[in-house]
Design goal:
2 copies of one chain form a homodimer.
Chain A: H1 5-34, H2 41-48, H3 52-58, H4 62-80, H5 82-85, H6 92-107, H7 115-124, H8 130-155, H9 165-184, H10 190-205, H11 218-228
Helix pairs in contact in A: 1-4, 2-3, 4-8, 6-8, 6-9, 6-10, 7-8, 8-9, 9-10
């Protein structure tokens, strides 16, 4: 019996961890569709067929649960967007990929709604506290990834050195967020047009290293990137 | 005594109405800064020094209070943006004014936060029910005002007839929403630059009725509009 005790304890930890993951998974689904405020211990317990006290054993407060949910949303976002873009070589191609995967995460409904991080960002932008800080952290990470990609492209001589990397990141993000809104009001062309607008922005920033004909269409640009990096 | 009764009853109605307005005013302040979900009867009663039951006498449910708060937000938005823009004569000047006053409502913090209607829109965009419907209604009203202004400008020969009015409204809105985000992450130039971007969009749509030099700067455009309509 004593010999098996460590294994049994390990199983329990594992099971506890799996339960915790399931709780956060469900919490993410609710929050992504209806906002963090829709997340109540009662509803979550009901959805998962758990007791409220069972849930409290994993998350001692609603706050802890909210923070875990934001962290999961951030992981999901990173995996769908930033990490996916890392397969592209550094430079203007990476910058393009970041925008492309961002639009794809909207298109493919990676989240169960439009709350993360658009609704959450506007809701918490002017508040203080751990939840707003965590939401802002996710936004900052995303803007930093865009900015880093601009700087790398500048270092590689693909984007003009005098372009302001931070401002470029802001502008690309503004374009994406605006397209998200337009997509949500039912314009089926919004995301396709956003890709064209991103490309046009990149053309305006690119050095002569990149042939102008690469920017003629999204298709041309993709073909150019593929050709160049094979 | 009997003679004064009607007046007293009138006073009571008036007082009830004033109380109701005060409740919604406070509710708007909370919701605009922290989201509709932060609006609880308990907190509101505490803020206003009322009993919960006193509050319930005015709003029989949280839902009724939420809807009244959205309606108030819509009125505030309309007054700051759409109604303000109506002072400009119909046409491209009206379209400009709508965008200008939209940016000004962000600049001047007409709302106590960035929730209405940006956070609210993204939060409720993919939900159903009376609250999401009301939020969508406000968004639709705004987009319709933009679209109507584009069509009026087309009718007056100031904007090319082949421009798609709905798409133009979407694009202008996308530009404004993106700038709002950029402003919130701390780019102090975001709103100024958004005005330049709106102007550049208008230039790309304008007919030869409008002299090209009117589009050289926001200042030039304002001077042109002023000159023309005096």
């Amino acid at each position: 019996m004593r010999k098996r005790a460590p294994k049994a304890a390990g199983d329990k930890v594992l099971k506890g961890d799996a339960t915790r993951r399931a709780i956060v998974g469900r919490a993410l689904k609710i929050a992504a569709a209806e906002g963090l405020a829709a997340l109540t211990i009662g509803r979550l317990a009901g959805d998962l067929g758990m007791s409220k006290s069972g849930l409290f054993a994993h998350f001692r407060s609603k706050r802890t649960l909210e923070l875990a949910t934001i962290d999961r949303a951030r992981d999901v976002f990173a995996s769908a967007v930033s990490i996916s873009a890392e397969d592209s070589p550094e430079g203007i191609g990476r910058l393009w990929s970041l925008c492309h995967f961002w639009l794809r995460h909207v298109e493919e409904r990676v989240f169960a709604g439009s709350y993360f991080f658009a609704g959450a960002f506007f809701e918490y932008a002017q508040q203080s506290g751990p939840v707003p800080d965590r939401i802002r952290g996710a936004t900052r990470e995303w803007l930093a990834a865009l900015k880093r990609a601009v700087k790398q492209a500048q270092k590689l001589g693909e984007i003009e050195r005098n372009a302001n990397a931070e401002r470029t990141a802001f502008e690309l993000n503004g374009l994406l967020v605006g397209a998200h809104w337009t997509h949500l009001v039912g314009d089926h062309e919004a995301l396709r047009k956003a890709r064209a607008a991103v490309l046009s922005k990149l053309r305006s920033l690119a050095t002569r290293e990149i042939p102008l004909k690469a920017f003629e269409s999204v298709r041309d640009f993709r073909a150019y990137l593929k050709e160049r990096h094979r």
